Amino acid sequence: MKKKLVLIRDIGNYEGREVTLAGWVYNRRSSGKVRFVLLRDGTGIIQCVFSEKDVAPDIFELSDRIPQESSVYVKGVVRKDLRAPGGYELVASNMEVIQIAEDYPITPKEHGIEFLMKYRHLWLRSRRQHAIILIRARLIRAIRDYFDNQGFILVDTPILTPAAVEGTTTLFEVDYFGMKTYLTQSGQLYNEPNAAAFNKVYCFGPTFRAEKSKTRRHLTEFWMVEPEVAFADLEDIMDLAEDFLCYIVARVLSECQEQFKVLERDITKLEAVKKPFPRLTYTEAVKKLNEHGNPTKWGDDFGGDEETILSSLYDRPLMITHYPAQCKAFYMKRDPNDENLALGVDVLAPEGYGEIIGGGEREDDLKTLEKRIMEHKLPREAFEWYLDTRRYGTFPHSGFGLGVERTVAWLCGLSHVRETIPYPRMLEKIYP
Ligand code: 4AD
Ligand code: MG
Looking at domain 8-99, which of 3.40.309.10, 2.40.50.140, 3.40.50.300, 3.30.590.10 is its CATH number? Predict the structure, then answer.
């Protein structure tokens, strides 16, 4: 007979009633004449109490030896118990086994990261990983809600593309019926014509970079949300980034209290994320770095170390603008007051997390953009369609991209991005 199941997260609605739960054995312990089975169903964890007086002898015996991650149905009455984790427990009357699990590789003892990554598909069942991925899901929902509510239209951009966006050194090449194509590094080049068609647009999807270095901030496959706004300049897009970040942080804070507790995250650090954000030019940032003993010279791009120092100086995200044009992509508009500077912005997360947003104003002059494509030795033919935006009613426009994984790492207080995506892709990591 088909069972009517209740989810653990809804258990509070069933106090005093008999329910059937389905899930996996998370842990168990015994105390005198009672056995406690912690049952996990993906929506929560509840303690099921098996007493010798309440259940058949074979069930009582089973509750004492059922292996971790075995799948079961448990029937019982919901009881409020403030001492129980979650506030409720189940006084079990029966348990039906779906499968007795084989020896589960991930045990309560400590495991190394290599081992856990190899079992990533199972590791996701653990409390911390579950909390992180849930925060990720809530963050993504908040991101979508923000742009949808601000009048942005979601216009999807392709994954297979004929051209590089963010430099040619991190391209993944794909053979497309004998033609050379690439996995997209960013949806931006498509966002720009889309902004001419829909005014305020965003795209949100996986992006790819063949990052050959092993760092705690780089994945080869990561998710990026990219808004693009017609007739917006650098300052407009910075105001948007500021408002957007405040909104998504506040939403995740209000929706993920429980998960932040599991992660033991100091959320006062996130509560500090309020407008206005500090704003520095690149030149001012170099001065700050030098004052803090970092030897960066004007013209050097910032790496992880520089970002860590700078983002540790403030309690909220830091916006850095006017980088040397040589550090930035071909499409960036130059500062009309100084040709050597790009009208771009990077936003660094606090607590040493580094860059989470990159963006700026786009070059909108046809001749200048053609020149930049040449200077960057990019194949002109692959960009003809992109140049059309500058031929048919060119317009000032700006946008940015936010990396989801780096944002999750910051929100969760993690030292490495590998735990912020269900199945991380990194140099030498493609399994599972
Ligand atoms: O600064 P980036 O390269 O900017 C762009 O791609 C622009 N075309 C976006 C735009 O203006 N529409 O990347 C944007 C963000 C970074 O700030 C970072 O958060 C994330 O994408 N990112 C990565 N995240 C994880 N692993 C990597 N290898 C990343 N590369 C960039
Ligand atoms: Mg960048």
Answer: 2.40.50.140
